[in-house]
Specification:
alpha/beta, Leucine Aminopeptidase, subunit E, domain 1, 4 helices
Length: about 150
Amino acid sequence: MSALSRSDEPLDRLPGDVAAAFFFSDLRPPRGGAALLDWRLNGRLTRMLLDGEAEGRLGEHILVANNGKLAADWALFVGAGPAPARFSASSRKLLRHLLDVCRQAGFTRLAIALSAADAAEAAALEKTLAELLAEVADPDLECRLAIDDDL
């Protein structure tokens, strides 16, 4: 059974193989976990967005090596298309995609940041992620979750 734990620490302080966050095609500058990772990585994502090398489109992935400012070994920016207004069925698909990408890359210790508008949405996101991890049923998979309100 995969393990999920929620943390009050910010994404850049969560240990793991990878720190992952969504970035959206219609939000500039990046927000939430993506903004924090971008800042800690000296604006790498922002430069890619400005140079037209990244867009935030659904299915886009950017893997960046830790520059010594993250607790995780790698940072993964996952393009998610237009930002959803609230938790929805598309959020479940995005989370499933994120887990699949991490597992295909061989990461087993995940740190994930999600943004929620309120406590109810945060609880729904955490529940959905727990359900998806249970479906994966990988005993080696560990996930630490940070939830913020900066969507």
